[in-house]
Amino acid sequence: MTNTKTTKHSKYNINYHIVFCPKYRHPIFKNKLESELLSCFKKVCSNYGYELIEQEIMPDHAHLFISAPPTVVPVGIVRKLKSISANHIFKNFPNLKKAKFWGSGLWSRGYYVGTAGSVSSETIQKYIQNQKNV
Fold first, then answer.
1. Close Cβ partners of 27 (under 8 Å, ≥ 6 residues apart)
2. What are the tens digits of pLDDT across the range 10-65?
3. Which of 16, 50, 112, 127 is catalytic?
4. Which among 15, 23, 77, 127 has the fewest CB atoms less than 10 Å away?
5. Which of 67, 65, 81, 74 lies closest to 21 in space, CA to CA?
6. How far apart, in whole angstroms, are the C-alpha atoms of residue 89 and residue 86?
């Protein structure tokens, strides 16, 4: 197992591909706002013990590839990323809230999350099926 991490009581390799969009899918993440968001996500991940493997900010959505311990639920990661980044962005770009979001939040309610490890699901299935043959 590559990229295996350890907690006190477990070994794991859990990675999440997370995608979410600003409300109304406004294409706002460009230039300074994009770099500020990249920096904010790095800080949130560092503060909460998530490994930020990769990130890409598109003008109208964010892609994050994050590894987190098995004690952390994906929705918790998304909530932290969205709430902290929204507060940070609105604090540093106060005109953005007035111009585009009229008192509502920065992020839309929905999100996408997919899981990934270091092997394919077919490999895991074959491994489990062959356990009695070992």
1. 59, 60
2. 999 899 999 999 999 999 999 999 999 999 999 999 999 999 999 999 999 999 99
3. 127
4. 127
5. 81
6. 5
